[in-house]
Amino acid sequence: MFENLSDRLDSVFKKLKGHGTLNEKNIEEGLKQIRMALLEADVNYKVAKSVISDIKQRALGQEVMQSLTPGQQVIKIVNDEFTRMMGSEHQDLNLNENALSSIMLIGLQGSGKTTTAGKLGRYLRKQGKKPFLVPVDVYRPAAIDQLKKLGKQLDIPVFASTTEMKPLKICQDAQLAARELGCDTLLIDTAGRLHLDEELMAELKSIKKGINPTEILLVADAMTGQDAVNIAASFDKALDLDGVVLTKMDGDARGGAALSIKAVTGKPLKFIGVGEKADALEAFHPDRMASRILGMGDTLSFIEKAQDAVDEKEAKALEKKLRKNSFTLEDFRNQMKSVRKMGSIKDLIGMLPGVNKKQLKGINISDREFNKIEAIINSMTPGERHVYTIIKGSRKKRIAKGSGTKVQDVNKLLKSYAQSMKMIKKFNKGGMKSMKSMLPF
């Protein structure tokens, strides 16, 4: 996501940083290029015009003109204004502390409401809540079945609604059922249409009036660009939204909807969907997203993903093993599984500060590579995983055959592991001194 915009901005900033000093002409030319980049990213025209005006006002002031690093100061201003454009700070769900909360998920058909309901259920459970999934799309039996299937996979209870029931009655009955089950948050998956129509709006207004939901979230498809922003404005006018969830952000290289939605509707973008899996939902942080767009990385999100994927006890046990130089191939396999839980390696690397976006284009670490490494380690005996030095010619052939790989693949893995162990041993022996000797500067 934002790949094209990031590339364009990187090019603009390189030119600006190339000037020892900046004058009004340099800045005007740079801002013209930034404005074009925003429009190409499908950012709303009025939003792009407004943010460029704000950047220009600050960029032509003393904080840039009198700076020793004017190019860097312009980047900082762009970062600040992009953050403000997207809402300044993350706005979480505003749920009741000691009473039942209800979250209405609304949106057009195909926007990803049902999948988002499951993802939000998982998210809320990690926050200590007890979610209850409520299928209200009585016009599409498949939607009800899909939510029931998701609930079973995630071990989250689902209200037993049927196509014979009325949507409002389902919600009211679900409130009673949730209290009996000890659940505290209803996730209501409402019906959608291919287009906005009066019948849909009337039904949603009826549900809103009948249950007084704690939050109304619009689920919109990011890949529809400015259509998603226009849809958000229409739903907001009719129902007064509390926030927006943009799905399919991983497939949207432009990202105009994410950049425009808060500025156009005044309502915050609360979550983004970044994949099909249940854990592929991220809380939206405007400051972190601005940093990612401008190539500054997103260390906080990286840390949160790591904390979510790695068990604290396992992390402490791993630390002890590393200190004692007893990190085995079995441990390596287990840690690899933890890393895979965090998401795409390419996306994770992209969160780190100073990573060149163009370099990432050449990186293609697929699940196939991870599967190959895991298969090789799984084909080893327990003894081989703990003492890799016993793996000689005949053992390598057996492992390669058992894992469906080549002896060269086994050699490559063992060589990488041996080099890693040497580095760990050197660090444990010399501490910071040895670490400095390993650095290339």
Q: In words, what does this structure look like?
A:
The protein has three domains: 83 residues, Four Helix Bundle (Hemerythrin (Met), subunit A); 196 residues, P-loop containing nucleotide triphosphate hydrolases (Rossmann fold, 3-Layer(aba) Sandwich), CATH 3.40.50.300; 129 residues, Orthogonal Bundle (434 Repressor (Amino-terminal Domain)), CATH 1.10.260. The protein contains 21 helices and seven strands. Strands 2-3-1-4-5-6-7 form a seven-stranded mixed β-sheet, with helices on both faces. Helix 10 links the parallel strand 4 and strand 5. It is an alpha/beta fold and 441 residues long. 60% of the residues lie in helices and 8% in strands.
Element layout with pairings:
Layout: H1 3-18, H2 24-40, H3 45-59, H4 62-65, H5 70-85, E1 101-106, H6 113-126, E2 131-135, H7 141-154, H8 167-181, E3 185-189, H9 198-211, E4 215-221, H10 226-239, E5 243-247, H11 256-265, E6 269-273, E7 281-283, H12 286-293, H13 299-309, H14 312-323, H15 329-341, H16 345-350, H17 357-360, H18 367-378, H19 382-386, H20 393-403, H21 407-438
Parallel strand pairs: 1-3, 1-4, 2-3, 4-5, 5-6
Antiparallel strand pairs: 6-7
Helix pairs in contact: 1-2, 1-5, 2-3, 3-5, 5-12, 6-7, 8-9, 10-11, 15-18, 18-20, 20-21
